[in-house]
Design a protein that fits this description.
alpha+beta; eight-stranded antiparallel beta sheet; 34% strand; disordered N terminus; signal
Amino acid sequence: MKKLLSTLIMAGVLVGCASTPATPSAMPSLLVMANTKKTNEALSPDTYVDGVGMLHFKDYHDKVVYQDKIYLLDSYVIPLEQPFYIHVRTADGTPIMPDTATKVATDYIAPKGCTEPLVRRADLDKSTNDKSEWIIGVAC
């Protein structure tokens, strides 16, 4: 699994999947920040998720409708490691219940990035104080 994950990460880096986060400028994120001092090294983090350097998978950005609400989703990884860190927020910036953020994140990542059974990593979950953004941890 680690070999597959590292191969996928390197492939993403080589074809340009890793890029700056797709955070709309009108709604800056409190949990996800662009690395303004990115180097040209292949695995230099392009994003900081809650202060930890990570790679953003641009191809994993998505807009999902769940229970009549639009959710914006992005995936991040620490280079050459598991798990995925899924950034979940609503398009209108309203608070999200933890179980809703988890459901949206796991349903979103399972078909895209899971080659093994999905394992929740609730120990990695974070949210803003107003609960309008969540980071949901998932290994698979």
